[in-house]
Amino acid sequence: MMLQSNNSEKINIEMNLRYLKLQTILANYETMAKDIENDNLSCHEYLYRLTSKEVEMRQENRIKSSIKRARFPKQKHLVDFKFQEVPSINKQTVIELTTGNFLADSTNLIFYGKPGLGKTHLAISIGRELCLKGFKVIFFTGCELVQELKRAKDDLALTQYFKKMRAVDLVIIDELGFIPFEKQEADLLFQFISDRYERGSVLITSNLVFSEWEKVFQDKITTAAVIDRLIHYSVILELREDDSFRTKEAKLRMLRQKQSQEKHIIASKLKSKSKQSVKKQSVDNLKNQCTKKGKIGK
């Protein structure tokens, strides 16, 4: 295949590519044309390779953009989660959640348990995997979401905010219950959860069992209504371990420090004994030398 063009044609081609926003093809069409000519391949093969390059780059950019819009506070990966240290969590259940099948019927996910057991790690990891599969995800702490809802209310734009969030497949609300809300704030959160009911999924992490959620929503009736909407379609995972990862790591550090100190003490004692032995041997040698000299003098 021979691909030759004059300068005028090249300018027109590049203008069209810019107009169509085919930036990857624009950057690669000449180089790839030379490769195709060297391999003596057809025009169809050239177009296929060129468009495949464009598709590949767009997919990569889409994923990067999706993860950026999700606003995850840190990078967390499911492969790094220590399932063996949290046996109350079924690994296969979590892996199934990363497929995104639960989003089809707006099923909610609720992870609860003591602080430090990896609830946020799981939430971010699942959210990230869903971004890679093309789903729209956004991450908030409970406090961050409430502040956004308050700003929207103050701007008389709460209805528009709800509509905008309906385009998001999964809203993650992290650390619900760490800080209690005022009644007005709790009511806004209730409205948000009610608006997503049967429209979009919510993933909530909390250190509180359901019986303690009244601390968050400040009212028995509101609390019951929130729980009713969330658990109607839901997957609930309880993390039941006694010690958090941080507590286990702290205990392990303390154990290692203690072992290191004990080794140091033992080494010091051995060194001291060695010195005493050398000193005793030196004294004995000196005595022997003196005894020998005494005998010679006699």
Work out the helicity level.
Answer: 55-70%
Structural class by SSE content: alpha/beta
Q: Using only CA atoms, what is the Rg?
A: 34 Å
Summarize model confidence as the mean pLDDT: 86
Strand ordering within the main sheet: 2-3-4-1-5
CATH architecture of the largest domain: 3-Layer(aba) Sandwich
- How many domains, as an integer? 2
First-residue to last-residue Cα separation? 115 Å
* Residues in β-strands, percent: 5-15%
The stretches of 5 or more residues where confidence is low (pLDDT under 50) are 243-248
The tally of beta strands, per DSSP, is 5
Shape: flat
Q: Looking at CATH, which topology of the largest domain would you report? A: Rossmann fold
Q: How would you characterize the largest beta sheet?
A: 5 strands, parallel
Q: What is the H level of CATH, i.e. the homologous superfamily of the largest domain?
A: P-loop containing nucleotide triphosphate hydrolases
Please report the number of helical segments.
11
Sketch the topology as an H/E string, one letter per element.
Answer: HHHHEHEHHEHEHHEH
Broad CATH class of the largest domain: Alpha Beta
